[in-house]
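We modelled the chain as a single entity of 472 amino acids. Its sequence is:
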Amino acid sequence: MQKVIFTLFLFYTFSSSAQTVEKWNLQKCVDYALAHNTSIQQNELQGEILTNNLNQAKLSRIPTLSGSGNHNYNIGRAIDPFTNTFNSTTIQSNSFSLSSGVLLYGGSQVNNTIKQGKVATDANTKSTEVIRNQIALSVATTYLQIVQAEENLKVATEQQKLTESQLERALLLEKSGATNQSNTLLLKAQSASDKVAIVNAENAIQLAYNTLINLMQLPLDQSIEIALMDVSSLPEAPTESVATIYELALSNLPEIQQAELQIQQSQLGEKIAGAGLQPTLSAYGNVNTVYSPSRKEVSLTGDYTAVPIGFTENSLEQVLQPQPVTIIREKAFGNQLTDNLGQQVGVSLSVPIFNGYRNRTALENAKVNTRISELTLENTKNQLRNDITTAYTNLKAAKSRYDAALLNVKAQQLSFDYSQKRFDAGVMNSVDLLSAKNLWNQAQIQALNAKYEYVFRTLIIDFYKGKQLQLK
């Protein structure tokens, strides 16, 4: 039995080591999220539609060509178009035609439609970049939250170890009669509280991992563990002013470029709508032919037959006249197509005179859309300026808060060390010791939160400056 248990233990140990979860750094998490995000995929598919529309607009420059064929039954009394006589029989016919046309002038509508399609494609590309940036920033933020939660767990674990050490010493002092039971009871309560803090920290880690998994759209059965980073050396604070960062963001962020492209798209829409008020000139051509089994042809056989034409005056003998023998048959299909072939070419001029002011209304609406696009750009710039100003202010506040938190940690640690010595000497009770310990613990947590908030704020500023999102 012991041998079986030992074998199972070895198997479990080997399996656990063999199933080591691969650690994911930030770049790998971002790349995976960008490759599997459905919103990005939807936007890219929309880009394919816009590309198809652009290609279609380019092809509208070349002439059109269409063919048609019909099989007709003319039933009842009607004029046979092939004999030009009335006929009461059913007449069958086939007609074939090829038609072509090309726009010679249309107020540059085709050229402007092509330009608008190109701008729309570029704007969609910028829209995809906006979504990619949002996903990358969300992944980086959640990644940082996991790192922060891991650090909080380390602090909670160290504090729990420290409490256990104090509890062991208090039990020895109580056993020797140097202290009463109340001190050990307080330390036991503190130990339980520390364990709750550890559970809360572990839960915060799991919640952050859940958020990251959802952002990356990982399968639920796939495990992930991020690579913890060293943030002992904090990133340098930006040396640029708010105005400089704002100017960099205007030239780097795709939101601004997308809004500018949308203005160009609306302006081209004005030109397209204005083309509806101008004349259009087109050229056209048509080739058609007809076939019918009712079309007949007469042919000579080379033989002759005697046809009576009268009698002689005296002898009354019958007078015969030779007449060629003919055959009436359906005219051949190919011959009919050749004989009935017709061609038509021409030019067509269309001048809009009145159509219920539809073209004029379309032009006015296009001008309004341009104004809306211009206001959208202004709103985007104003929102960006507000976001950068807020982010810059939060960065400065986070740095000041972190500096103050470090000083507080040093002070609370000195206070706790002094309290620990007094407690060991028997001149301080456990209540005061635990108070000093909790203050030190809170100071450590506050310093950690301030540190990671500062890292996050610098990440945001770097994003506005056009730098790649990365945590070192």
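As a brief sanity check on the tokenised model: Strands lie at 23-24, 64-74, 78-80, 85-87, 91-105, 225-226, 280-291, 296-311, 318-330, 342-350. Residues 1-19 have pLDDT under 50 and may be disordered.
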